[in-house]
Each structure stands twice: as structure tokens, then as C-alpha cells.
């Protein structure tokens, strides 16, 4: 028997549709903390209670989870509140222990999903159990690894497979304190994942992405605006004293405020005023895009000509001063037109690469 993610069908059927809510502490720390949080989560409308039992810590010496004792606390909280349980499993032994204890939704963590061998071992351990499984994005922004994990689980015949977008690791030269997000979202990776797997429910994890309490609300809203199916958010009765991820956990009361402030937008609107105006604006966007692509094609034709010209005169393709001047002038133009200079800078980095490729391939040209 294969099962669906608990609460998802009801969340989708609500008017307006609401996000599936997976709430709970980063780590299960004691029977009391788990029960108190579970009751608060249920009062907040949670569909599923989350908690870490075995914690994958990047560095040794940090709290590594209470292990199997925590499974008993969770089973008691489930009996008390009726909430289904979601727990991270990183080895076949974890998966077996979790299922024995009545865990309803095992999930694969971001550090596990980078390793296809471990994912396959877990898929084999979960084979045929029919339980729904969540797959966090891998710490590396590699959509193939994320997709591959989903496919391995599906082939193993588990229940519904859902994906969790929790952001990606990047190197931060000044240290973690200098960046806005603990794990930058790289939204385009999640968007590409969803393009490939439109039938896989996508759940956002603003807690691990933001890493800070004040970012949970804005990130959650952003996820809802991108039509994510649900949210996984960490909550703890006394976050400052949490044994893991203290900075990103909210008290249930603070989480209640965040959830109450979220604005649900629908994928479409039946209002008579919506479709005609949306259609008109989309036609204008289509026309603007057509011009953009034609302008790019025209630019690349000129680039091909200059490539051949440089070759004829024995001049290198890439000329750093010329590109420094292009970046400076184009970002300046952008600013004058109300565009973010960083956006246009990134765009020109792509255009630059394509220009070099075009010149390298130009008839009679050779690369520097
Ligand atoms: C977690 O959800 O507690 C966790 C460890 O997450 P991630 O695998 O996303 O780091
Ligand atoms: Mn955590």
C-alpha cells in the first residue's frame, strides 16, 4: 500500500488552497519538549510534526541527536496529538528504527542526498514500505543529484515522494556572518527541479535556508508566491536554549504570527477582471522578449564579424580592458534605467562567455 503525504490532499482542496505545514523542533531534546512543541504545532494547524532524532552535524562535537530514545518521545507525542511524524533518516538502520517507532514520513537530509550510494541504500531499506518520503535538496546546487534521489526512491516503490527546498552551501570568504542567508536559495535550481518533476510536491524549508528568525516570514511568503505546496518550519518552546539551530527557531507564538501574516495567492483567478488584463500584459511581455532575443542575435552576428577581423589581424579574442569598459558602461546604463546593476552585470557575464564562444567558433578564428 502506498500512501500520500499526510495533509497534502486536504491542504490542496481548501479554499483558498493552503500550504501543507510540517512544524516542529530542529531536534527532539526531551519527552517534555517534544510533547509541548507537538501540542503547540497542532494548535498552529500543523499537518505533520517534524523533529531530528539523529542530527547530521558538519563538525564533530555538536549535539548529534538523542537517538532511539527520541523515537519514544515522538511516538508519545503522536499518540497525544494525532499528528503524523516526520524524521530524518540517514542510514538503513535509522529508517528501520523510525518505521518501527511509527514514523510516517521519513526524510533524506541535504548531506545524505549528495551521495547516490547512501540514497540507494536508503531506497532499498524503504523499498516496498509504501511510506511517503521527503527528499531535501543536496547541499550542492546540483539538480541531477536531487532528481536522482527522487528517482531512486520512486523506483523502490515507496509512497508519494516530495521534495524540500532548503537552500545550498556556498563558500563565503568573510565567514557565515557576512551573508544574508545560511543556505542561499538559488531559486532557479528549485524552479528547474519543478520543471522536471511537476508532479512532485515541493515544500520550502525557510528555517535552514534563512538561518535567522527574521528571515522565516519573508522566505515563507516568497515560497508561497512561487506556488510551493508546503512549508517545513522549525519551532522550539525556548529557542535560545535549543541544542541545535538556536538562531533560526521560533517560539510557537512567534511562528503563529509569521503564519498569520502569510498571504495566500492563487495560481489563477476566476474574477472577470483578471484574465483579459493578464493576457494583454503577457502579450506585451512576449513582444518584449522577442525583441530581446532578436537584439541578442544581432549582437552575436557582429561578434562573429569582429572575431574574423581579429583573426585576420592576429589579435586575441578576449581583451580584458574592453570587457572592463563594457561591464562598467552597461551597468551604468542599467542603473540609469532603474535596473539593478548586479543583474545586468550577471547578464553580461553570460553574454561575455557566449561572445568568446562565438568568436572561437568564427570562421578562420582561433582562441587566445
Ligand atoms: C533538519 O531539517 O533538521 C536538517 C538537518 O536539515 P538539512 O538536511 O536541510 O540541513
Ligand atoms: Mn535544524
How big a fraction of the residues is strand? 5-15%
Radius of gyration (CA) equals 25 Å
Describe the global form.
Answer: elongated
Separate helix tally: 13
Broad structural category: alpha/beta
Strand order of the largest sheet: 1-2-3-4-5-6-7-8
Q: Compute the number of strand runs.
A: 8
Helix content: 40-55%
Task: Give me the strand/helix succession.
Answer: HEHEHEHEHEHEHEHHEHHHH
Outline the biggest β-sheet.
8 strands, parallel, barrel
- Overall average pLDDT: 94
Bound molecules: phosphoenolpyruvate, manganese (II) ion
N-to-C CA distance: 61 Å
* Spans where pLDDT lies below 50 across 5 or more residues: none
Note down, in words, how this protein is organized.
The chain has 368 residues and is an alpha/beta fold. It contains 13 helices and eight strands. The chain has an eight-stranded parallel β-barrel with strand order 1-2-3-4-5-6-7-8, surrounded by five helices. Helix 4 runs parallel beside helix 5 and helix 5 (116-126) runs parallel beside helix 6 (143-155). It is elongated and about 80 Å long. The chain binds phosphoenolpyruvate and manganese (II) ion. The site of manganese (II) ion has 5 residues, from loops.
